[in-house]
Amino acid sequence: MAIIRCNKCALLAEHPDDFVGKNVACPKCGTPTPVYPALFFIEKLLDKYFAAQREVIRLTPATATAAPAPASEIAGIDLGNTDSLANELQHGPIYDWFHKKQIKVQANMRGVDTSGFFDEIAEAIGANLPVLKEVLERIRWSQQKEHASATISLERKSPEDAKAISTFCQQLYDFSFVAKCFHNKQENNVRLILQSAPTIRNFFNGEWLEWHALMTSLRHAKERGRRFSCARGLNLTLANGDPYEIDVFMLIDGSIPVCIECKSGEFRQNIDRYLALKKRLGLEGRQFVMCIAGLGDDNAKAFSAMYDLSFANERTLADKLNRLF
């Protein structure tokens, strides 16, 4: 059933779907009233609910402002399998931090829900990118070409690398990142039948690095017993209307902000934009980390010296965080 809501008498009632998009007379007062799809109406209600919830957090007196979860609570959480971070309250200190800078912010709750397998696969990639990079590239290329499968040759691979690739491909199948996985010993390759779900495509198109950066940050904070609030895929709107998205944002002990931008491809054309954002947020260069997949250590050091940003790769990100908290 569709929904009508009269703007004059506030009547809320169901109506046949055939009238969606049309105006009908309000059954109570007769005023012409639009008929909305039920899903559209529910989405609007949820938007208003979450907006009101964020406003409550913003208006809460400083003495009662939502604080990052105590280290004692975090210690009992399996960071690799929890949805306890995917709520408005956990994001509250982040909302408050940006509000003080007159920046509108919208968090993606699902971005920090680790109850799926995105974080496990991302950490596996981050731990062995030089070997697994070819698998990612083959999958991404096949997705872009709308191919149904991707084949990874194991020829000219060392026994150790071939085993690592085969094990990883099997893990992709076990966790449903691919629909099927065929180990062809005769032709010495692995053939993957791809999934077409947008979340899977986005993961292989670069989101894996965001998950890796998030998990690296969470584990680092937990190991050091630090309180934190975290977000992934944080949408910002500056006072002048300029939109930004922060891949990973951590607020340590309610006062130490850390921004991590993740790039698995070209990044140089965006440096000026990130420098502008860093300045607007009032961060030091070491607090704005550019995590570039596969970036050489020497290049990371050189870029950090050239720009007021902190460059790292998937392996050295933890070292950068260690200097911050």
Task: Tell me what you see in this structure.
This protein has three domains: 2-53, no CATH class; 68-114 and 206-322, Trna Endonuclease, Chain: A, domain 1 (3-Layer(aba) Sandwich), CATH 3.40.1350.10; 118-201, Ribosomal Protein S8, Chain: A, domain 1 (2-Layer Sandwich). The protein is globular, with a radius of gyration of 24 Å. The N and C termini lie far apart (53 Å). Strands 5-9-10-11-12-13 form a six-stranded mixed β-sheet. Strands 2-1-4-3 form a four-stranded antiparallel β-sheet. A three-stranded antiparallel β-sheet has the order 6-8-7, with helices on one face. Mean pLDDT is 91; it is low at 61-65. Helix 1 (38-59) packs across helix 3 and helix 4 (118-127) crosses helix 7 (198-223). It is of the alpha+beta class and 325 residues long. It has helices spanning 38-59, 71-75, 88-99, 118-127, 129-144, 159-174, 198-223, 271-281, 297-306, 317-322; strands spanning 2-5, 12-15, 23-25, 32-36, 104-106, 149-153, 178-184, 189-194, 228-237, 243-252, 256-263, 288-292, 310-312. The protein contains ten helices and 13 strands. This is DUF1887 family protein. InterPro entries: Restrct_endonuc-II-like, tRNA_endonuc-like_dom_sf.
Name the beta content range. 15-25%
Low-pLDDT segments: 61-65
Oligomer: single chain
How many extended strands? 13
Gyration radius, in Å:
24 Å
Strand order across the largest sheet = 5-9-10-11-12-13
Task: Determine the number of helices (DSSP H or I, runs of at least 4 residues).
Answer: 10
Shape descriptor: globular
Per CATH, the architecture of the largest domain is 3-Layer(aba) Sandwich
The count of domains is 3
How would you classify the helix and strand content by structural class?
A: alpha+beta
Q: In this structure, how is the largest beta sheet organized?
A: 6 strands, mixed
Question: Helix content range of the residues, please?
Answer: 40-55%
